[in-house]
Amino acid sequence: MALDRFFRRRRPQQQPGAEMPDLWTQCPRCKEGVYNRDLELSAHVCPRCGHHLRLDAGQRLAVLLDEGSFQRQSGRVWPVDPLAFEDTEPYPARLARAQQKTGRPDAVLTGSGTILGLPVTVAAMDFAFSGGSMGSVVGEEIARAAEHAAGAGTPFVLVAASGGARMQEGALSLMQMAKTTVALEGLAERGIPYVSILSDPTTGGVTASFATVADVIVAEPGALIGFAGPRVIQQTIRQHLPEGFQRSEFLLEHGMVDAVVDRREHRAYLRSLLGVLTRQPAPEVGA
Amino acid sequence: MALDRFFRRRRPQQQPGAEMPDLWTQCPRCKEGVYNRDLELSAHVCPRCGHHLRLDAGQRLAVLLDEGSFQRQSGRVWPVDPLAFEDTEPYPARLARAQQKTGRPDAVLTGSGTILGLPVTVAAMDFAFSGGSMGSVVGEEIARAAEHAAGAGTPFVLVAASGGARMQEGALSLMQMAKTTVALEGLAERGIPYVSILSDPTTGGVTASFATVADVIVAEPGALIGFAGPRVIQQTIRQHLPEGFQRSEFLLEHGMVDAVVDRREHRAYLRSLLGVLTRQPAPEVGA
Amino acid sequence: MSAPADTLRELEARLRDLEGTAQRTGQNLDAALAPLRAEVERLRGEGHARLTRWERVALARAPGRPTALDYVERLCTDFTELHGDRAYGDDPALIGGPARWGGVPVMLLMGQKGRDTKSKIRRRFGMSNPEGYRKAVRLMDLADRFGLPVVTLIDTPGAYPGIEAEERGQGWAIAESIQRMVRLRVPAVCVVIGEGGSGGALAIGVGNRVLVQENAWYSVISPEGAASIIWKDAAKAPEAAEALRLTAPDLLELGLVEEVVPEPLGGAHLDPDAAAAALGEAVSRHLAQLSALGPDELKAERSARFRALGSFREE
Amino acid sequence: MSAPADTLRELEARLRDLEGTAQRTGQNLDAALAPLRAEVERLRGEGHARLTRWERVALARAPGRPTALDYVERLCTDFTELHGDRAYGDDPALIGGPARWGGVPVMLLMGQKGRDTKSKIRRRFGMSNPEGYRKAVRLMDLADRFGLPVVTLIDTPGAYPGIEAEERGQGWAIAESIQRMVRLRVPAVCVVIGEGGSGGALAIGVGNRVLVQENAWYSVISPEGAASIIWKDAAKAPEAAEALRLTAPDLLELGLVEEVVPEPLGGAHLDPDAAAAALGEAVSRHLAQLSALGPDELKAERSARFRALGSFREE
Ligand SMILES: [Zn+2]
Ligand SMILES: [Zn+2]
């Protein structure tokens, strides 16, 4: 039921400063080559098969927010190495590599912006940074973003993309699950909406904390979403996993998400939903 | 785990004024003949097979409360015939018959008393009165009992035994589900415990209202408990019902009741539970 | 139905033929047909006043009677259906989500029957499983959090009587929904728009105002269920319907509803737009009245409304 | 273990023999055995201080290590186990109910492992399903309603990684339990008494005070899990345990727990009564301290505690 999803984007926005090193990208699902420019115009959804390609945090906010509206909040908080963690390489070396690759201190980008004119606070996790793993910085930035939303009185929209808690910060990473939940509490107390968008993949400690205590949970089509990873489950139960297991559509059927929404509809969906939840007057048609 | 269920009754109480027209009763399950006196001494549980015989409201309170502690509250409210309901006989004729049989205005007995010294407000439904069906009087008496408990600050213990809402009062009976829930709200608001004991049978509108919004739900062994009756389900789905379906033990397994407790343990169970929930000091051993 | 009803049916059919002719040929017959239309209307009114309770039940179940979503399409904007109980599943027989009702932000909860055979089966003919009631509880949590009035449209033969429903606590789920509704700190307006079957209907029926459409029924048990119990014969449902006094006028007389929402003559299915207009107006009016009350007052008023229901004498 | 550990084992065995002889013969050997006992104690202390992290993990999993119910039997009266989530099932791996802790009324929530093969399987080796966390939420509702402090005993390798657990929202259930615990308006004291495995442990770990027994571990991932990810080889768990810094002293140093609860030398399984006495005292002491705070303060203090956790630098 989307009776008045009239807020289609007139034209998709280009990601600011995006480069196009290649002219086209091969769709991981249908293997079709798609011009990068067309991909951007379709919110990085394959125009042929509808596959939702993974986005980094910058691409995500470009898809979600009104062009030019984003004001970054995150970026001043940097990860450290509290455990002096070393496995096949020292944690700081891993971090440096991920920072160089993404141009960000850690796996999250937060700030404020507007969605079809509606002011929101946003946080987008960055799977490109160490699999979107949640350590102290991710927890802190998400907590600050939630607190900013509570203070500003704007709805909070978070896009999850994460393999779970970050091993390299040990139990400190685990505690971010509680920390973020504490920060989100300020939104619930003030009656400010919190919507999470679960993208591919969202697993582990992220699924078991801030991503799922949202007022409304939206999943992108075909995303892998769960607590335990499929491999761990298979090892434990030594049993074949059913077709579509832990995918968005499976979760909708099992009552876990409010809706599976095509990425190209996210802006209209959120504008319509948040407009009602914040009891704002209906926007003018075509606004 | 009942570490200190030391509050065994020293001797079962006789039901005040009970007559013994026959010397013995045949257990409906094991078919053994049991002396009525022995049955009373074992809280109307078959000493041979453990079958819990059905109790009327008076027997129930005799089993539950300290001897001589019961102060009746119900009895001033009488049923009427708001729909001028007539099926195979007029509703008033049915009522008169049930009243004569049970000596009560309707299918519930309420009041106050003590359980091993702990003051409680109690309500016992009377299956002997028209199958314990819930009409306006049952709803009103239970609502008043809940309000009395809230006012007195005593825990409320209710024993359900009912085939559901009473057809002969139409939608008025249905509304008792909401009315009783409203009255129970006063207990929740004041932090006063409400425990319901589900006895055989508890079905229909009673299961879908006051009997299951309790803080703690205890079921008697082997009781039939459900919303839809087994016959209705069988007619709808045209399928064999599984063994033990809708019995207490089935409900425990499915997470619906807190415990299945032998009737002979009810007093000790309630004393121990309610003592903690009301944050009273531990009673002296042997008190 | 009685003989005048047969006459009415015939006249209606003729009128439709003539209107078809007018449309096909482009000939304007409005003036020519006006007297015939008036007569049909008159007969409808006459027949309607004479309807038996069982005939009303038949109208509440009439093929083509508007379902909840038919009204939403006509009355609401920005409806976002929210799915799932976040614990087990999503129930298509009890649906809901935020929307604007005549422009006013509300939280909708609705019994939903299918509109074709496939969706009827999928929606279990409007009979909810526990997941439906648990979703209702979740949406009421959201309504309270965001200060959205709750509007419920009730249309269910009753909760689904299935093995799995019992396994997952059908009674418990209904009770929790009733309790949650008692606790609401926002306005709640409920309308029975078709069938109001027993506890499955009451689960979303604990409103500050409870309305009923003219040809809807609301009862502690379905006529068929009552007949099966009383006479061991579901075919005696018409007699049971009489005894149960389950029609809109009955409910108004018993003091169980605040208002009967009028339907177009002959039933809502004959003119869904007109039915929707009346429904929209009634709900909006009650929402406006309730908007003057604060959260504590709303809960207290609703509690007092239901606490007072029942018929007995006191000695 | 190291050579001194082997010596200790042998001496312990001899000592047990001698104590057996004393008991059998009725001969009082206390004086004669005192020096030997002292030496055993000394060696235990030495060995304990030298334990590797992996050896601590082994102690946390040692056969015969007291489970939550072993402590309840020693420390509590009037425990009434309350079952079920009122929606789907009852989880024997996460149990709870009201009880008196050293005489003080509390609400217990506990990870429970089995004590024999059959009950170990039934209790899924302490790995909860969503029903367990939903039961925890329900019991926290009761704790808040009746003003009962919450005491949790954490002992789980982690939430159960099963198909059905995922179908019924394992992540959702854990998140709700964490959120419910954040919202508690009563004191909450949590103790890791064995394994503190990941989110499944944190689900009942959001206390005003979080304690850890001397040989318990608490980590974002099990050593085996980490080893599988890092080296694709679960056998490298000892190395992973070192890297994860998951022992009681580590957690104290990282500022994640308020206190390490001492165990008898060699581990709680060697003297469950002594382990229980220390646990009982520690929890009672923290409960007494927290009893001075009001509902708002308790929630605020707990929130502030967890809001502050994390290690980063700010530019
Ligand atoms: Zn494609
Ligand atoms: Zn027997």
Give short descriptive properties of this protein.
heterotetramer; A: 287 residues; alpha/beta; 2-enoyl-CoA Hydratase, Chain A, domain 1; 7-stranded mixed β-sheet; disordered N terminus; C: 315 residues; 14 helices; 9 strands; globular; binds zinc ion
Report on the structure:
- The complex is a heterotetramer, with two copies of chain A (287 residues) and two copies of chain C (315 residues).
- With 287 residues, chain A is of the alpha/beta class.
- Chain A has helices at residues 36-41, 57-64, 91-102, 136-152, 170-190, 230-237, 248-253, 266-277; strands spanning 24-26, 33-35, 71-72, 77-79, 108-115, 118-125, 156-162, 194-202, 216-219, 259-260.
- In chain A, the strands form two sheets. Chain A has a seven-stranded mixed β-sheet, with helices on both faces. In chain A, strands 1-2 form a two-stranded antiparallel ribbon.
- The radius of gyration of chain A is 19 Å and the shape is globular.
- Chain C is of the alpha/beta class and 315 residues long.
- Chain C is 51% helix and 16% strand.
- In chain C, strands 1, 2, 3, 4, 5, 6, 7 and 8 form an eight-stranded mixed β-sheet that branches.
- In chain C, a hairpin with a 2-residue loop joins strand 2 (94-101) and strand 3.
- The longest helix of chain C is centred in the N-terminal third of the chain and has 23 residues, at 3-25.
- Chains in contact: A-C, A-D, B-C, B-D, C-D.
- Chain C binds chain D through residues 86-88, 130, 134, 168-169, 172-173, 176, and chain D through 86-88, 130, 134, 168-169, 172-173.
- Strand 4 (77-79) of chain B pairs antiparallel with strand 9 of chain C, so a sheet runs across the interface.
- Bound molecules: zinc ion (2 copies).
- One zinc ion (ZN) binds next to loops of chain A.
Chart the SSEs and their pairings.
The complex is a heterotetramer, with two copies of chain A (287 residues) and two copies of chain C (315 residues).
Chain A: E1 24-26, E2 33-35, H1 36-41, H2 57-64, E3 71-72, E4 77-79, H3 91-102, E5 108-115, E6 118-125, H4 136-152, E7 156-162, H5 170-190, E8 194-202, E9 216-219, H6 230-237, H7 248-253, E10 259-260, H8 266-277
Parallel strand pairs in A: 6-7, 7-8, 8-9, 9-10
Antiparallel strand pairs in A: 1-2, 3-5, 5-6
Chain C: H1 3-25, H2 30-49, H3 53-60, H4 68-75, E1 76-77, E2 94-101, E3 104-111, H5 117-122, H6 130-146, E4 150-156, H7 163-167, H8 170-183, E5 188-197, H9 198-202, E6 209-213, E7 217-219, H10 223-231, H11 237-244, H12 248-253, E8 259-261, H13 272-290, H14 295-307, E9 312-314
Parallel strand pairs in C: 3-4, 4-5, 5-6, 5-7, 6-8
Antiparallel strand pairs in C: 1-2, 2-3
Bound molecules: zinc ion (2 copies).
